[in-house]
Amino acid sequence: MRKANPDIVPGRTIVVGTQQGLYARVRRLAEPLLRLRSTKDDGTVLEAEYPLEEGPLAAEAAAGGFWSYAAGTAYRLLVDFGVGGLCIDNYRTTLPLKKGLSSSAALCVLVARAFNQAYGLRLTTRGEMQYAYDGERMTPSQCGKMDQACAFGSTPVLMTYDGDVLCCEPATLGAPLHYVLVDLAAGKDTVAILAALQAAYPVPATNEQRACVELLGRINADITQRAIDLMATGDAQQLGALMREAQAAFDARAAPLCPAQLASPVLHRVLAHPPIQPLIYGGKGVGSQGDGTAQLLCRDAAAQAAVCGILQADFPAMTCLPFTVPATGTSGSLHNGGSSSSSGVAAAAGAGALCSNGSPAGKAMEPVAVAAQ
């Protein structure tokens, strides 16, 4: 948005990988086809096949269905690299879908990495992220570039957005952080939320829109900088307090632009649930918020387990995902190659591991990690 209005403050987000994700086996096809099979988190199996041609892939992406993200990413790679046919079997999914955990970006990154590995495209991790982003932008989901950071795996990352320039820096974490991600078992419409918030850009026209732009600009820059400082010192207590502050600011300045989705009654019920208050330092919504997923920062590992027990007893429909972010030490680096074999994970989002099960000649190929938000 800064290309259209340079007065907008550059955007910033802090992301880190979770242990949930998409797992797939891929193989080349002699025919120019994209053959897709997915086992969803609820066990449902979906299958589809598309000719590897620009027209059908672009049409499927624009239609906005389940396979639109895969089609959009494949389209971008076909146009630039002339890739051949591919079979992708997403045989296992542990990442909840449509819960604000960036499952769409997870799929886009998985598809980009699948083609990269199967056809030796020599894309770096940042290259995979870019094609995943371009693919998702072909769908009705007009996402930003945050979600694709899951391609980096479990390293905490500070991302800064300035027009077309995306900067990614490793974030230092001085002590482990014990989170619980709570699938609120409700529902959210991410497309509607993003459309409402993006209507404030590039130039806000109302007081409500100006408040939102300030939230995602100046206020966000301040909050993220303080969070980075607290992470470095390992001060989980103050980081939890900052999460509460961030949630309050979001409720005051962003929620009025999309009240039907961002009133988030289920999210707020969980954040304020009395029995867990002595066990947590703070909490907030995930991603574009809404009643998708809550993130709670717990006091320690024992508190983390207790929070899961309480919430699952008091809210049986909800699912708790304990997630501990390990300390990074004093420095870190971001993997920027296209053939990592470490496990991939994503922040406030999902992760994934992509395993290629064979080359055209039938030789076994090394398992490859895929990060997906």
Automatic annotation (TrEMBL):
InterPro entries for this protein: GHMP_kinase_C_sf, GHMP_kinase_N_dom, Ribosomal_Su5_D2-typ_SF, Ribsml_uS5_D2-typ_fold_subgr
First and last residue of the signal peptide: none
Single annotated GO MF: ATP binding
Domain GHMP kinase N-terminal residues, every copy: 71-153
Keywords on record: ATP-binding, Kinase, Nucleotide-binding, Transferase
Protein name: GHMP kinase
Organism lineage: Eukaryota, Viridiplantae, Chlorophyta, core chlorophytes, Trebouxiophyceae
